[in-house]
Amino acid sequence: MYKNIRTDLAIENREIYNQAKNAEDEIPGVKVETEQKNNIKITRVIIETKEGEEALNKPVGRYITLDIPNIYEMTAEDEYLISENISKELKLLFDKKPESVLVVGLGNENITADSLGPKVIDNIDVTRHILEYAPEEIEPNSIAVSAIAPGVMGMTGIESSEIIKGIVDKIKPDALIAIDALAARRVERINKTVQISNSGIHPGSGVGNRRKGLTQQTVGIPVIAIGIPTVVETAVLVNDSLELFIDKLQKENKSNQTLNELRQMENYEKIRDSLISTEYNLIVTPKEIDDLIENMKDMVARGINLAF
Amino acid sequence: MYKNIRTDLAIENREIYNQAKNAEDEIPGVKVETEQKNNIKITRVIIETKEGEEALNKPVGRYITLDIPNIYEMTAEDEYLISENISKELKLLFDKKPESVLVVGLGNENITADSLGPKVIDNIDVTRHILEYAPEEIEPNSIAVSAIAPGVMGMTGIESSEIIKGIVDKIKPDALIAIDALAARRVERINKTVQISNSGIHPGSGVGNRRKGLTQQTVGIPVIAIGIPTVVETAVLVNDSLELFIDKLQKENKSNQTLNELRQMENYEKIRDSLISTEYNLIVTPKEIDDLIENMKDMVARGINLAF
Amino acid sequence: MYKNIRTDLAIENREIYNQAKNAEDEIPGVKVETEQKNNIKITRVIIETKEGEEALNKPVGRYITLDIPNIYEMTAEDEYLISENISKELKLLFDKKPESVLVVGLGNENITADSLGPKVIDNIDVTRHILEYAPEEIEPNSIAVSAIAPGVMGMTGIESSEIIKGIVDKIKPDALIAIDALAARRVERINKTVQISNSGIHPGSGVGNRRKGLTQQTVGIPVIAIGIPTVVETAVLVNDSLELFIDKLQKENKSNQTLNELRQMENYEKIRDSLISTEYNLIVTPKEIDDLIENMKDMVARGINLAF
Amino acid sequence: MYKNIRTDLAIENREIYNQAKNAEDEIPGVKVETEQKNNIKITRVIIETKEGEEALNKPVGRYITLDIPNIYEMTAEDEYLISENISKELKLLFDKKPESVLVVGLGNENITADSLGPKVIDNIDVTRHILEYAPEEIEPNSIAVSAIAPGVMGMTGIESSEIIKGIVDKIKPDALIAIDALAARRVERINKTVQISNSGIHPGSGVGNRRKGLTQQTVGIPVIAIGIPTVVETAVLVNDSLELFIDKLQKENKSNQTLNELRQMENYEKIRDSLISTEYNLIVTPKEIDDLIENMKDMVARGINLAF
């Protein structure tokens, strides 16, 4: 019944799948590896076949998730370790080392919860122009790194994917790295997860609901996506509360047939949507989101800088 | 059963009272006036006695609420009209025209949802220093307006009320006007309500949960508070969804005794709190909150500037 | 002797020419019109031939200058009138009304004196996406307006002209409007002049010293440039002070042959450059530049919005 | 003839004195120590008597100057070393360790060149409220650190010294540390010098020209001032260029009596002031000032945090 609930995290699709099947079984066409490094938990979900695609509702590809500590409990070493692991996983996603990459920061700088991408861009060490105009000032074998925050369609009038394609056609990088703020399925994941994948950015994902995607098919070069969940939808919060609530009643033997049936129904989504309405697009986000984004952007930018 | 739900809006306490009593009756010790001006609805809740205080869970005083349109449907004239009415209601709250006012912007400039106060301060036309150093450059009979954003305790190490009292003791204004971002009880109120009251700021109110209040008792001069709800608590959203959900089941004759009883229970709050937990302080806020605060601060600042 | 002094303003090249020739004579190949509208002085310098190009050190084209009042003495009406005149002059520079324009904000948002372009972009009313996805929500015959701030090479690793060309190739607008902060020749012009021209942006102009230009030749569509001087170079200030100083001595008969000759010399520039050195790029700018840019960007953005 | 030239740096007053006397001699009533630590040069100017006060045009007190490298050539270790030395010199200025300090960030956050103070405040680790409300969460013997940015009179209507005094009367700290952006006498000093002194803040100093000072006399507790020059006045730049220019002519035997006399005159200042005028307050500042302030504020804030 969770099929329609939006999440940008493959790890959550896997949870949803397992929960629906009431099983921790293997998923056909999907491989999962986990690794613990200090207090970072790394989960690699590899979707290998069409069957896996359907099971997890995500395209074939590698999805690496870093579960990280609460930012207020992190030491400077923790932060550095996270950057190092972002760097390491990032490099593993390339079949061969690219000679040039374009880093793209998606999202709206003026909406805090959507500003991760543009803020990371401000901290990327770009080298492409130095290689072109002053190659003697840079180490030999350096990769040409360029970076752009294309803005959002509401502010530019142009799909960000069109802007990116125009620039890619012009400067012809070997690969794209796209940073985006994500919507999570579970509130516990907000600002506590980094997802890196080689399947690109897909329509409707991200806090800002990008209309068109950025994938190898659409831009012609590999697209690595790095995302951090910064919000959950209010509908998700409401949904979860109903779920937990019925659970609780069932455990206490206070449920009834209606409720029991409801938990199995397909039209759950409709019920959910009818519940709360407002004239603004409400999101659920930490009060300290401005602060959290500042920290997260540093870790992600350093991770990318370390990789190249 | 709503007794413990937090709201900073007297108009919502009144709704809660009426809902609990299942009545639109008069509340003892409370007078209510309403007025419609174009598309602004003005409600004046006047708590006159101890009895009224208890009924509405707010101290004696006048609480004026302006219900305003969705900011994306407002014209420039609507915005101006709101400022004018803020100005007008503000002046009505003074027994006699003050000769000097200190405008105080409470809240944390770095947390968007809590930044209304400091942002209003940036737009206040201050005159106190002109009256002191260049009185010839200003109209005679001008009021001495000064303005300060004291920051929040987490950043200054000092209660904002202590900072304010220190400054009041030094410059001795006739009155204080305190601006604060509020928490609402209903999501529909976010950024659609301006509350002006003469009962000051009370502990635990505001997005930032001020620890100590600012009232005539504590600072020795009248304190007018202007607030706009910018968030609701997630617990409130969850609570409401359960409420609506039981309503829906009752209407469809799908409820049961457990649910019916639950709706009357006193320990609702405990149930609610058990539902969702996370390591961050989650709030529910419009995605466009950055934008909305920008507009709101302009209207409030202009309202204050027009008043003096 | 002023030949090598950098200015982005045609009106100043004209002054330099006239001063060098000690004449207010006509300049061959150049037409000049002036008009006074309330307290805005409009000067239209039209460079018509190669001869004019050489005389004024600027390519053939129309250069319109609006001399405006000190921003602290402007009324809201003055500001609106300036926007209206920007709009009017802008439209006159098009041979025929374009059906689509791309507005480009050049410069570095993080360097205040160079941030005019990106800040104007934030305030442009874009329509291109509405025409594409929801044409029913917009007036028929609307122009498709899009807008982008490409950043600076030091931050993106890419020439801003390359980014623009990539986007132009993709979305094929009929014309480009480029906003840039300029360097003036005279301190009196800072924030008191708006220049609009149809000759595009040229290498080495602007506060940020764009390396490559944006002109009809390079992008294939007409390029209208709107610029406001926000700085003068320190060398210019030093140069002027020497100039004024020799003048003063000459008037008081306290000069000598050395000084008199110096004023005529060709190698003035070398002398000038030897005078003051430092490790940073010093500029001369108003202390209130942050404030001034905020006002200017509003006037320019509104001017563009009114035009389309 | 330099007597009237404004500088906030004691080290520059000393240079001016020595230059005027054409001597590197000792100055009566003044002791000077220098020390080189890696690439930081520390100069301690100690004004001991009235005679010293008059010679250097600064009140009795200790003035420590750290000359630091160009920020673009600094390593992370250099930055840390500067913070450590700020911390060390700061502690040496206290006769005995204070139990509580209030850190004050003077200046206008919205004017980049004047924003050092408020930006440092954002990065101070405040502890006073933890000691008061949760002393178990902090090490025993911790100093109570609080911090405030009082804003500028043009925005608050109140002298920042009055705000500070009000707060000092209320919370009674043992000492004040005041951060301010300074005006330097020589362009080479901009962003390359940190001055720490125990003589407080004096009227007319700072980029923002504070009207009233903050000294032990006015607030009743010791006041340590930390300042970094971020601008020079344009008049200073012009003045220097004339000076250098006459020097150059003298060396080449191209000067004349007028010029030679001019260099000795008392009314130099009048000449200087007549040279260039404008309607805005022009300053000379690095183009990259926004960036430089970000770095500087980190070093100063860390220096203060290390000290307590």
What is the helix fraction of residues of chain A, given as a range? 25-40%
How many strand segments of chain A? 9
Proportion of strand residues of chain A? 15-25%
Average pLDDT taken over every residue of chain A: 85
The low-confidence parts of chain A are: none
What order do the helices and strands of chain A follow? HEEHEHEHHEHHEEHEHHHEH
Would you kindly provide a written description of the structure presented here, covering whatever features stand out?
Four copies of one chain form a homotetramer. By secondary structure, chain A is of the alpha/beta class. Chain A has twelve helices and nine strands. The longest helix of chain A has 19 residues, at 289-307. The radius of gyration of chain A is 20 Å and the shape is globular.
Could you give a short description of this structure?
The structure is a homotetramer of 308-residue chains. The first copy, chain A, is 38% helix and 21% strand.
List the helices and strands and how they pair.
Four copies of one chain form a homotetramer.
Chain A: H1 10-20, E1 30-37, E2 40-47, H2 50-56, E3 61-67, H3 76-92, E4 100-105, H4 116-121, H5 128-133, E5 144-148, H6 153-156, H7 160-171, E6 175-184, E7 193-197, H8 216-219, E8 223-233, H9 234-251, H10 257-262, H11 268-275, E9 282-286, H12 289-307
Parallel strand pairs in A: 4-5, 4-6, 6-8
Antiparallel strand pairs in A: 1-2, 2-3, 3-7, 7-8, 8-9
Helix pairs in contact in A: 3-12
